[in-house]
Amino acid sequence: MNYNSLVLFDRASYLRNDLYNKVIEIFLSLKKNKKMSKNPMITGFVIAIIVVIFSYGVSQLMNQKELEFIIDNPTNEKIQVQIDDQEYEVDANSFKIIKLELGDHVLNGQHKFTYDYIHHGVINPTKSTYYVYKRYYGSVAKKDSIFQNAPTLNIDGEKYQFTDTISDYFIQDFYYNLNEDFPSWTNSQKDSLKIDARKKIFRKVAFEDFYEKEETE
């Protein structure tokens, strides 16, 4: 399975796990209500509804042909950006959310990039440096062993673990975008034998603030 397939599978897995948790919640509520829990028709109806919602959600994810992208401007100046034939104005220290279709695109008439799989991204017209941090979830013992052997990255004299920098015009190698937060936990934490890892992209100042809090937790 290649990286593109893994990204798509990962999104579908999250949707499946979220719906699975909802099923558990409904079953627990049914169990507390003795009258409802003894009625197989009600239980079967609830399960059928959840299966339909799950199937629809996955099919929508698989068939999606466009997804939101962020044109980011972390500089102190307003910028003009052209993607294909469409022009955008992005204020200083702000971003603009757009939608792109699958296929080839051109940034500012000269920088070509290809959006060929279902995953969001950051368009970086200013060639700014971003920080991509990988957070691990799961068994504390296993996480400790990972941290002990983790390579470090030196940024402005400070050492950071599980961090990469990137300044490409088009960035997609992450899971959570600039306007998204890490979850406090993932479904794998319910199983001590599993560890999940998720990547999030940051601007520099936001990353430094995040990392400082991450180390103190």
In short:
The protein is an alpha+beta fold.
The low-confidence runs, each spanning 5 or more residues with pLDDT under 50, are 1-13
Overall geometry? flat
Q: Assess the beta-strand content as a share of residues.
A: 25-35%
Query: What's the total count of β strands?
Result: 13
What Rg do the Cα atoms give?
21 Å
- SS summary, helix count: 5
Overall tally of structural domains: 3
**H and E order:** HHHEEEEEEEEHEEEEEH
Helix content: 25-40%
How is the main sheet built?
4 strands, mixed
Give the termini separation: 35 Å
Broad structural category: alpha+beta
Indicate the mean pLDDT.
Answer: 75
Strand line-up of the largest beta sheet: 4-1-7-12
Protein described:
This protein has 217 residues and is of the alpha+beta class. The chain has three domains: 3-63; 66-120, no CATH class; 130-216, no CATH class. 37% of the residues lie in helices and 32% in strands. The chain has helices spanning 3-32, 34-37, 40-63, 140-148, 204-216; strands spanning 66-73, 79-83, 86-90, 94-101, 103-107, 111-115, 121-123, 130-138, 152-155, 158-161, 163-166, 170-171, 195-202. β2 (79-83) and β3 (86-90) form a beta hairpin. It is flat.
